[in-house]
Design brief:
Elements lengths: L8 E2 H8 L3 H10 L6 E2 L5 E3 L1 H16 L4 H11 L1 H9 L2 H25 L32 H24 L1
Helix pairs in contact: 3-5, 4-5, 5-6
């Protein structure tokens, strides 16, 4: 008796459908966090149809395209599950659409970075850095205890630059 395409598969059924040994499926679960079969009592695994599609894509990338496990992990991280599923199905239109979306996101991110890192929009004045002539000539106006609009813009820009530096450092770690 054949199962419905929407039915869950046991590990043996999934292994047979994917032409993979069961131990490979268990190993890939440890390497790809995106593979999450439902586990029932006694540790029995049940694979959803979307799990099967994802594993087909991973199998295609590893066995047919020659990617390493780290390479497929990077593809999943950069492009998401749907990209790998589309590659596994041979859906060229979906792959191109996802690639175009990712390129648009990369262009948008690059334009955001250009806005954050660049020349200041406001020229710093000597008073901002405490180099004014009198005691009251610091970054805060003596009369109203608030920053001038120009100095506030400089501080905001410095904060954005520091946050971007922190983000880049966190990525390196």
């Amino acid at each position: 008796m054949d199962k419905s395409p929407d039915a869950f598969r046991t590990i043996s059924e999934a292994a047979e459908e994917l032409d993979l040994p069961q131990h490979v499926l268990r190993f890939w679960e440890t390497r790809f966090a995106q593979i999450k079969p439902l586990k029932r009592g006694g540790g029995r695994r049940y694979y959803r149809p979307q799990d099967i599609d994802l594993i087909k894509g991973i199998r295609h990338m590893l066995y047919d395209q020659g990617y390493t496990i780290k390479g497929v992990q990077k593809l999943l991280r950069d492009n998401g599950n749907q990209f790998i599923v589309a590659v596994g199905k041979g859906d060229v239109a979906a792959v191109e659409a996802i690639a175009q979306t990712k390129q648009a996101e990369a262009r948008e991110k690059a334009s955001d970075e250009e806005q954050l890192i660049g020349s200041p929009k406001v020229k710093p004045n000597k008073r901002f850095f405490g180099l004014g002539r009198g005691e009251g000539d610091g970054p805060v106006a003596a009369d109203n205890s608030s920053l001038s609009r120009d100095n506030r813009a400089l501080l905001q820009e410095a904060l954005f630059d520091l946050l971007e530096c922190k983000r880049l450092l966190d990525q390196v770690r």
